[in-house]
Write a structure and sequence with these properties.
ten-stranded mixed sheet; Rossmann fold; about 45% helix; alpha/beta; globular; binds ligand 26Q; 3 domains; about 750 residues
Length: about 750
C-alpha cells in the first residue's frame, strides 16, 4: 500500500502494518532489525513516489546529463539522511515516539555500505547529495561490491581485518534494474574485416560478463529531484552453472563463470596507493564499459544518432584515473558500434570527458603493464596505441628531439600504460581539489602538459554536504544555529557566516558548550556499546580520524603524546589541560608501516592507562573500525581537529571541513584545503605550524632532510624514540617499532 501522505499517523500505520505483513508480529514483539526494516521501507515508499515522478520527467528531458564515475562511493547509512532530505524527520520522530520506538537504536540497525576507502569515495557520496539537492540531473556509477571495505577489530594491540558482508540482511535502498543489463567483453582476439570500403574491428573468442545494475535513489533536500546511484554487479552470461559444458570439458565457459563470480566481489582496501593487480583492472573496465554502453544507449533514445550533440547532452566526470578507460571505451563504442571515424570520435570524446585528480603521491599514480592491458582488453589496447601514436607526433612538434619529455608525457612508455597522461591529454578538463593542489598539478605533476595546454587546468576546492555533516549528525547545534540566524542556511549554507557576531554572544557560547558536552555523552554511548569503554567528558577531545598513512602523520601526533607522557612522568608538578586523543584509522592490510603505527598508538595508550597520574591528564582512545557512522559520532564531540599532513601531500582533505563545521578548532599544516580554511577563518582561529609545501618539496628533492640531526639535538624526541625500541612501549616485541624510529 503506497502512502500518499506522510503525516505522523500514516507513518505509524505504515510501520505497524509492515511489521504485521512481513514479520507476522505485533510491534511489541518485533526485533530492532525488523523495526528498522519497517521504518526504512516507510521512508523508501515516500522516495519511490518521487522517483517515479522524476523518471517520468526524465523521459522527456532534453538537457545535459552528468555521469559521475567512481570506483568508490562511501555512502554511509541512508535512513537518517533520507528522512532529513524528505523533510519528514519531525513527523518520523513524533511517530516513533508515540510508538515507543527509540530512533537512535533503530538507525544503528542499518548496515553501513562500506563501498569506499576514504576521502575520494566520501567526496563522491557528498557530491551525489549536493547534485540532487541542487536539482542537477546526474547519475553516480560504480561497482556493487558484495563485500565492502574490511571491518577493523583491534585485538592484542593490533589491527585484525574481518570481511564486511553488508548485504547479509538485504539492502532496503536498492532496486535491481535487470532490463538495463549489458554485456562486457574481456580477452579474445581482434579481427580486422573490410566491409563497404571500411576496416571494421571485431573481437572473437572473448569472455563475456553480464553487468546488472542495482539502483539506489538519491533524494535531494526539500525538492523533487531524485537522482540515481547505479551500482553494477557482475553475473555470468549463463545463469546457472552449465554442467553440460563443464563436464564436456568446455573450460572456456567455466572460465567466464569464474570471472563473473569475482569481479564485483570485493573492494580493494588501498587508499592513496596503487597495486597493478589484474582483477582491479578488470573491475575498472567492467563498470566503466557498462556505464558508457548505458549512457550512449540513453543518448540515442533521446537524440538518435546525432552524435555531434553528445558533448552538449552528456558529460562524464571521472573520479581520479580509475575510470580512465572511459576514454578508449567511448572511442570504441563510437567507432566500432556506431560507425564513426577516428577524428570524429576523438573530437567527441575529448569534449565529453573530464578528469579530477585526487593525489600527487607517486605511489598512487595508476599505471598498468602494457601486456596485461593487451591481453585483457585487446581492442582497447589497439585504441590506446593509436591515441599514443598521434599524441607523440603532436608532442614531437611541440618538443622536437626531447625524448625524455615525450616519454614522460606519453600514454604508453616503458611497457606501461600511464593512466594520468591518458586522462590529461584526452579530456577537456583536469582539475585539482584545492587551490594548493591545483598549483602543484600545474607547476609540478603535470608541468609539461600545463605548458602545452594551460586552458585545461583548474581547481575546484572540495566540499562536504552540510546536510549529513551538520544537520543530521549534530541536531542540537543545528537547532541552536537556527535559533540564532533562522533556517535559510538549510538551503544556503553560505549563510552560516551570519553566525560571526554570535562568537561574542555569551548565551550562545554557553549553549554551544552545553551541546559539545551532550555530544561527548552521545559519543560515549557509542563507544560503550562498540568497545565497552568511555572517555572523560571534561577532557578536551583531540581527534585525528582518517585513513592511516605515513604522509598524514599519525606518527607525529603519537610522538607528541609520547613526549607529553614523559613530561608528566618526569615532573611531579607538571600540569596541562586534560586531553583525550582520539584516533580512528584503518590501515591497508598489506601496509606494514601503517599497521606498526597502529601498534605503537595502542601500546602508548596502554602505557598511559597504567599510570594513574598520567591518566588524570592524558588518554588515548583508538576507535575501532572508523567508518562514516563512527565519524558522525566523533566529529560533533571534538574540540581539536588534527590535520598534520606533510605540506604538499594531502590534495585537499575533507575531514578538516567536517570538524570545523562542527565547531572544532584546527591544528594543522599549510596543506590542501587547510590553506583556504586558514584564509577564511583568519590566523587567530586556527593553529598553523610546520614547513610550507615549497620548502618541504625543496628539502625532499635535495635530499636535505636529516632526522638524525633532530634525534641528536632534541632530548625529548631522542628519549621517546629510544623508548619505542627499548621495551618501554612495546614490551612484548621491543624491536618491532625499530622500523618506525
Ligand atoms: C589506484 C590504482 C588502482 C586502483 C585504485 C587506486 C587508488 C584508490 C584510492 C588510488 C587512490 C585512492 C584514494 C585517493 C584518495 O582518497 N584521495 C583523497 O581524495 C580526497 C578527495 O578529493 C582528498 O580530499 C584527499 O586529500 C585525498 O587524499
Amino acid at each position: 500500500m503506497p502512502l500518499t501522505s506522510f503525516d505522523k499517523e500514516s507513518i505509524k500505520q505504515s510501520i505497524v502494518g509492515k511489521i504485521q505483513r512481513y514479520n507476522g508480529r505485533t510491534l511489541a514483539d518485533a526485533t530492532d532489525q525488523q523495526i528498522y526494516q519497517a521504518v526504512a521501507s516507510t521512508i523508501r515508499d515516500q522516495i519511490m513516489q518521487k522517483w517515479v515522478a522524476a523518471r517520468e520527467r526524465d523521459k522527456t528531458y532534453m538537457g545535459k546529463r552528468l555521469y559521475y564515475l567512481s570506483v568508490e562511493f562511501l555512502m554511509g547509512r541512508s535512513l537518517h539522511c533520507n528522512a532529513l532530505n524528505l523533510c519528514s524527520m519531525e513527523n518520523v520522530r513524533e511517530a516513533l515516539l508515540e510508538l515507543g520506538i527509540n530512533w537512535r537504536h533503530i538507525i544503528r540497525e542499518e548496515p553501513e555500505p562500506g563501498l569506499g576507502n576514504g576521502g575520494l569515495g566520501r567526496l563522491a557520496a557528498c557530491f551525489l547529495d549536493s547534485l540532487s539537492s541542487l536539482e542537477m540531473p546526474a547519475m553516480g556509477c560504480t561497482i556493487r561490491y558484495e563485500y565492502g571495505l574490511f571491518r577493523q577489530r583491534l585485538v592484542d594491540g593490533q589491527q585484525v581485518e574481518i570481511s564486511d558482508n553488508w548485504l547479509e540482511n538485504g539492502n532496503t535502498w536498492e532496486v535491481a534494474a535487470p532490463e538495463d543489463t549489458v554485456e562486457v567483453r574481456f580477452d579474445g582476439h581482434v579481427d580486422m574485416v573490410q566491409e563497404n570500403g571500411r576496416t571494421n574491428f571485431r573481437l572473437r573468442d572473448y569472455h563475456s560478463v553480464m553487468a546488472v545494475p542495482y539502483d539506489m535513489p538519491i533524494a535531494g533536500y526539500d525538492c523533487d529531484t531524485v537522482n540515481t546511484l547505479r551500482m553494477w554487479r557482475a553475473r555470468s552470461p549463463r545463469d546457472n552453472m552449465d554442467f553440460g559444458a563443464f563436464s564436456a570439458g568446455n573450460y572456456e565457459k567455466a572460465l567466464e563463470q569464474d570471472m563473473a563470480a569475482v569481479i564485483s566481489k570485493v573492494l580493494y582496501p588501498e587508499d592513496n596507493h596503487y597495486e597493478g593487480k589484474r582483477l582491479r583492472l578488470t573491475q575498472h573496465y567492467f563498470f566503466t564499459s557498462a556505464t558508457l554502453q548505458y549512457a550512449v544507449k540513453d543518448f540515442k533514445r533521446r537524440f538518435g544518432t546525432r552524435f555531434n550533440l553528445l558533448p552538449e547532452k552528456m558529460v562524464v566526470q571521472i573520479n581520479d584515473t580509475h575510470p580512465g578507460l572511459a576514454i578508449p571505451e567511448l572511442m570504441r563504442i563510437l567507432m566500432d558500434e556506431e560507425g564513426l571515424g577516428w577524428d570524429e570520435a576523438q573530437a567527441i570524446v575529448s569534449r565529453t570527458i573530464a578528469y579530477t585528480n585526487h593525489t600527487v603521491l607517486s605511489e598512487a599514480l595508476e599505471k598498468w603493464p602494457e601486456q596485461m592491458v593487451k591481453q585483457l582488453l585487446p581492442r582497447i589496447y589497439m585504441i590506446l596505441e593509436e591515441m599514443n601514436r598521434r599524441l607523440c607526433a603532436r608532442l614531437w612538434n611541440a618538443f622536437p628531439g626531447d625524448w625524455d619529455k615525450i616519454a614522460k608525457m606519453a600514454i604508453l612508455a616503458y611497457d606501461q600504460v600511464h593512466m594520468a597522461n591518458l586522462c590529461v591529454a584526452m579530456t577537456f578538463s583536469t582539475n585539482g581539489v584545492s587551490r594548493l593542489h591545483g598549483e602543484i598539478l600545474k607547476n609540478d605533476t603535470f608541468r609539461d602538459y600545463y605548458s602545452l595546454m594551460p586552458e585545461k587546468f583548474s581547481y575546484i576546492t572540495n566540499g562536504i554536504t552540510h546536510r549529513r555533516w551538520l544537520m543530521a549528525c549534530n541536531t542540537h547545534l543545528r537547532d541552536l544555529i537556527t535559533e540564532a540566524i533562522g533556517d535559510k542556511w538549510y538551503k544556503e549554507p553560505e549563510r552560516l557566516e551570519e553566525l560571526t557576531p554570535f562568537a561574542e554572544d555569551k548565551a550562545f557560547c554557553e549553549k554551544f558548550a552545553e551541546i559539545k558536552r551532550f555530544n561527548k555523552q552521545q559519543f560515549n554511548r557509542m563507544l560503550a556499546m562498540r568497545q565497552d569503554m568511555t572517555a572523560e567528558e571534561d577532557f578536551l577531545f583531540d581527534s585525528q580520524c582518517k585513513r592511516l598513512h605515513e604522509y598524514k602523520r599519525q606518527l607525529l601526533n603519537a610522538l607528541h603524546i609520547h613526549v607529553l607522557y614523559n613530561r608528566i612522568m618526569d615532573d611531579p608538578n607538571y600540569t596541562m589541560v586534560p586531553r583525550v586523543f582520539i584516533f580512528g584509522a584503518k590501515a591497508s592490510p598489506g601496509y606494514y608501516k601503517a599497521k606498526l603505527i597502529i601498534r605503537y598508538i595502542l601500546a602508548l595508550s596502554k602505557l598511559i592507562d597504567r599510570s594513574p597520574r598520567a591518566r588524570r591528564m592524558l588518554r588515548i582512545i583508538f576507535v575501532e573500525n572508523y567508518d562514516v557512522s563512527a565519524a558522525e559520532a566523533i566529529i560533533p564531540a571534538t574540540d581539536l581537529s588534527e590535520q598534520l599532513s606533510t605540506a604538499g601531500k594531502e590534495a585537499s582533505g575533507t575531514g578538516n571541513m567536517k570538524f570545523m563545521m562542527n565547531g572544532a578548532l584546527t591544528i594543522g599544516t599549510m596543506d590542501g584545503a587547510n590553506v583556504e580554511i586558514h584564509e577564511q577563518v583568519g590566523a587567530d582561529n586556527i593553529y598553523i605550524f610546520g614547513m610550507r609545501a615549497d620548502t618541504a618539496a625543496a628539502l625532499e628533492h635535495e635530499g636535505g632532510y636529516n632526522p638524525m640531526q633532530i634525534f641528536e639535538n632534541n632530548a625529548e624526541i631522542r628519549r621517546a624514540l629510544t623508548q619505542m625500541i627499548d621495551g618501554t612501549v612495546l614490551p612484548d616485541s621491543p624491536t618491532a617499532a625499530g622500523a618506525l624510529s
